[in-house]
Amino acid sequence: MGDITxxxxxxxxxxxGRYFEQITEEAALVQGAYLGERGxxxxxxxxxxxxAISGRYAGCIxxxxxxxMIRHLLMAMHEPxxxxxxxxxxxxxxxxxxxxxxxxxxxxxxxxxxxxxxAGAPERIKSAVRARPYVIxxxxxxxxxxxxxxxxxxx
Amino acid sequence: xxxxxxxxxxxxRSRIARLLGANGLGETVIVGxxxxxxxxxxxxxxxxxxxxxxxLTMPEMDGVQxxxxxxxxNPEARILVVSALSDKATAIKALQKGxxxxxYKPFSDEQLLSALGELMAEA
Lengths: 155, 123
Fold this sequence. Notes:
Oligomer: heterodimer
Largest interface: A-B, 30 and 23 residues
Distance between the termini of chain A: 6 Å
Structural class of chain A: alpha+beta
Shape of chain A: globular
Number of strands of chain B: 5
Order of helices and strands of chain A: HEEEHHEEEE
Strand content of chain B: 15-25%
Number of helices of chain B: 5
Radius of gyration of chain B: 13 Å
Radius of gyration of chain A: 14 Å
Shape of chain B: globular
């Protein structure tokens, strides 16, 4: 397994900022990535969307956010249905969009799964490939969410 | 103009439908919404749309396979791929299978309306 570079992490930082800007006309603030705790994933928010990565890369990408942030995002999209089902759909779609956008840099050989979305903080999920996954804190309006990048290159 | 919306995300399906409803592109009628490729093919046969918005990453049958199948059923249909997959190879593959346009997610309201407007003008 090969580590991903700082430039590759930057791809995700830019994708998050752009997502919120494009959808809500207000970019999310992302202040860089840090290495999370060994084996732990800080999926501490209400809803989490996960994308499994395969092909020339392996691992997972997670987007985890609080209920109020997703509700606010749906309001910005003029989406009237704020049911849990739609909030779960939204985190999956965000994770899917960020992973899909990353293929502009990683190429078609980074294969991405359909999203798997969860409600509640999934404490039992451990990092898939990295001892210490990258954590990107996402600030939008007065909310905070997390994008977790737990991928490595297959060499 | 008859439109079919294909996306595995309910919020994306409803956003596209809502945007078209609010901005009324010509005489557009949404004839169906599908959450995977298999459902999309069934609806395509039943409703005979002129234009389709097509996601790529979907369960059961992906959007590239679905585009190819739709083009075999009706080569006159116009397909706008609406996907987060931002690599050039995927866009080329979808266009080779018969899609006429490609819009990257995340998209703004204006980008979607402009892309659909162009496709509908050609249909």
